[in-house]
Amino acid sequence: MQESDCIGRVIRGAACVAEGAEWLAAREPRFAHALQRAGQVPLRLRQDGYGALLSAIVSQQVSVASARAIWGRLVAAGLTEPTAVAAAGDDALRACGLSRQKIRYARALAEAEIDYTALRAAPEAEVVTTLTAVPGIGRWTAEIYAMFSLGRADVFAPGDLALRESARLLFDLSERPSERALRGMAEAWSPWRAVAARLLWAYFHVEKSREGMT
After folding, report:
1. Distance, CA of 134 to CA of 118 (rounded, Å)
2. Could you count the other beta carbons within 10 Å of the beta carbon of residue 56?
3. Model pTM?
4. Pairwise CA distance, residues 38 & 51, whole Å
5. Which of 69, 115, 131, 205 is least enclosed by beta carbons within 10 angstroms?
């Protein structure tokens, strides 16, 4: 586990996630229940950089299957790096399945000249500010990037609908909490909010799978 005064804990492997899950379960009985139901909490780390954000843009407002198909075509065409996207014609990007709007977003990201290496050592607020300045990247995408591409242990993404629904189920709430309400709830889960998110997602999938079988 790496820790910095500037960015806090950084998740490097499964042991870090297990440590966070154990901490959460010891302090909140509902997380202990979620961990028992879900079992091992997934690591879900991925590479950082332009490709990670382009993949997030591709996934916006399409099914998982469609996003995978489009991404596969972009990879096959060699269009996952900023220089390649900037140099490609619209027809080439459209042929991979990108809409006009997403082509604009992909180009804007390519032209943003983000210093991805510097982001690894930047505070969460700076990461979010830098990324959301690019068209097509909202706070949810920036927080997901910080959680999974940068491995930040104490970042949360309360705008995620699955997280909000999982919190409703796990905490037996009368209704799905708002983004603001869930962000407030998550303060109690610091310094392991990103592990809390992983656990909530895992619990959500278990519960929805169980519902599908009844």
Report:
1. 17
2. 23
3. 0.90
4. 30
5. 115
Beta bridge partners of 9: 3
Distances (CA, A) of 3 to 8, 9, 24, 70: 5, 4, 18, 37
The residue length of the chain stands at 214
With b meaning 16 or more CB within 10 Å and e meaning fewer, what string describes 142-162? bbbbbbbbbbbbbbbbbbbee
HSE value, Cβ hemisphere, 13 Å, CA-based, for 163: 22
Other beta carbons less than 10 A from residue 14's beta carbon: 13
Q: Which domains does the chain have, with CATH numbers?
A: 2-45+154-213 (1.10.1670.40), 50-148 (1.10.340.30)
For 27-79, the pLDDT digits (tens) are: 999 999 999 999 889 999 999 999 999 999 999 888 889 999 999 999 999 99
